[in-house]
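Late entry, evening session. Most of the bench is empty. Finally got around to the prediction I had been postponing all week. Sequence below, unchanged from the version circulated by S.P.
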Amino acid sequence: MPEYLAQTGYKNPVDPADGIFQYTKVDVGGNVGHDMERFRQAHPETAARLYLQDRPGVVNLSKCPDPVNKIGYDFFTPQPIKGARVYYMHGVLHDWSDEPARKILEMQRESMTPGYSTLLIHDHIAPEALAHPHTTAYDLTMMVMVAGEERTESHWRELLKSAGYEVVRIWRSPLAVQGIIEAEITK
């Protein structure tokens, strides 16, 4: 908020479409919108600024009501929504080995605004050592089925750095398999 007020000379907003609360959230590879719908229910006033993206055949099955924006999108192509506040990916990158995952990340990075846009990755974060049998079984399953992989925190950091990001923070519970990684584009 202080940045917005400073940028506008501390004047009251005059355009209802360009105010301090005009943030956009993009759910990249969001399937039919289960995460987006929970977010919309908790924050109904944001619905018009929410974008659900997945392949056209998937996003067309979305149960998210209007005015949530539903867009067919291939995440191996440039991200069409520029300068969103949040780009969110849940369970997307573990389907892919490092090279295609890096490509997905690079396609998002090109649309992000330095110092403003944030990437949130909600995905598996494997322990560095002595992983639970469930985690190792899931890693093997992803490898065999789709050439994907589960990543440790250090692996996530390396992947993100190689795609032009820096990790800001990682939220995880010792009891959970998944965590949330917050990253920004490097300056």
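Two things to note before I forget:
The chain is about 30% helix and 25% strand.
The two ends are 22 Å apart (CA to CA).
Will write this up properly tomorrow.
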